[in-house]
Design goal:
179 residues, alpha+beta, Alpha-Beta Plaits, SH3 type barrels, five-stranded antiparallel sheet, four-stranded antiparallel sheet, 3 helices, 9 strands
C-alpha cells in the first residue's frame, strides 16, 4: 500500500529559497580634523598607531594629510561624527572635528599628484639641490612636463652648457616676472 503524497504546496521544495543575508554596507564619510600647526603628520601617525594597537575600536578607512591644507587631517570612516570626536580626544595635537562632512568631490584634487615641474617656467632661476652641480644656481631654458625634466644653464658659467635634470632636483629661487 502506498502512502498518499502531500499536496505540492506543502513540500519543502516548493518554498522559495531563503534570500541570502545582505552584506553590511557602510557609507564612508570624510571628516576634517583640525590639528596643531605643523603637527598634521604626527596626528595621522598617532591615529594609525591607536587603530593598530587596538587602543580604540573606531574604524578608519584612510587618513589623508594634504600638503596644501595646513592644520588639517582628513579621515575617511564609516563612523558617525561623535565617534570621530571620541578619537580626537585620544590623539595628541588633534584639536577638533570641523562641522559637517566633506564630500569626495571637495577633497579629490588633493588625491591627484601634482607634476614635479609645476610652477617652473622658462627663465626661472633655480638652485640645483642634487647631483654634481649641487648648490649652483641656474636659469631654466626648457621644461619637459611629460618626462618631468628641465634643461638648465648654469647661472655663472663662462661657457653655457645645457644640463638636463629631474624636476625634483631643483629648488625655485626666483620666478620669472611677466612684464
Amino acid at each position: 500500500m502506498t502512502q498518499p503524497t502531500p499536496p505540492a504546496s506543502a513540500t519543502p521544495a516548493s518554498q522559495p529559497p531563503a534570500a541570502p543575508a545582505a552584506p553590511e554596507v557602510f557609507k564612508n564619510r570624510i571628516f576634517a580634523i583640525k590639528t596643531t600647526s605643523k603637527q598634521e603628520r604626527t596626528v595621522a601617525d598617532n591615529i594609525l598607531k591607536a587603530i593598530e594597537t587596538k587602543a580604540t575600536d573606531i574604524r578608519v578607512s584612510s587618513i589623508i594629510v594634504p600638503n596644501e591644507l595646513q592644520g588639517y587631517v582628513l579621515v575617511e570612516t564609516p563612523e558617525e561624527r561623535n565617534r570621530i570626536e571620541q578619537l580626537v580626544e585620544l590623539i595628541a595635537h588633534a584639536r577638533v572635528v570641523t562641522k559637517g562632512e566633506t564630500s569626495l568631490a571637495e577633497v579629490g584634487h588633493f588625491l591627484v599628484p601634482k607634476p614635479v615641474v609645476a610652477g617652473i617656467d622658462e627663465g626661472t632661476i633655480v638652485e640645483l639641490i642634487a647631483g654634481p652641480f649641487k648648490g649652483e644656481k641656474a636659469v631654466v631654458k626648457r621644461v619637459d612636463s611629460g618626462k618631468e625634466e628641465i634643461t638648465v644653464e648654469l647661472y655663472e658659467a663662462v661657457v653655457p652648457i645645457p644640463i638636463t635634470v629631474r624636476g625634483d632636483n631643483v629648488r625655485v629661487v626666483e620666478k620669472v616676472s611677466d612684464q
